[in-house]
Amino acid sequence: MSGRLFRLFRLHTVPRRVQALTAVVLLAIFVLFTVTGVALLDARAALRAIGHDEGPMVVATNDVYLALSDMDAQVTNVLLTGAEDEWLCDVDMDGGPSCARSLPRYFYDIRREDAQRAALQAARLAEDDPVRLRTVQSVLDGLHLYDQRVQAAMERGRAADHAFGRLPEDAAAEYRAATKIMTEDLLPKANNLTLAGAADVEASYGDPLSRMKSGRIWVLVLGLTVLVALAGLQVYLAKRFRRVISLFLVAAALGTTALTAAAASLLATEADYVQMAKEDGFDPVLRLSRTRATGKSLNADRIRALLDPADADRYDQTYFEKSQAMLYIREARDLESYYAMLDARVARYGGDPHPVSFGGYYGVEATEAAGRGQQAPVDTLLTRYRAYQQNDRRVRELARAGKLEDAARTHVDPRWHFLSHPAFRQHDAVLDARVVRHQLVVDRMVRDGEGALAPWAWLLPASALVIGALVVGGVWPRLVEYR
Question: Does residue 240 come out as left (phi exceeding 0), alpha (psi in the -120 to 50 range) or beta?
Answer without folding.
Answer: alpha
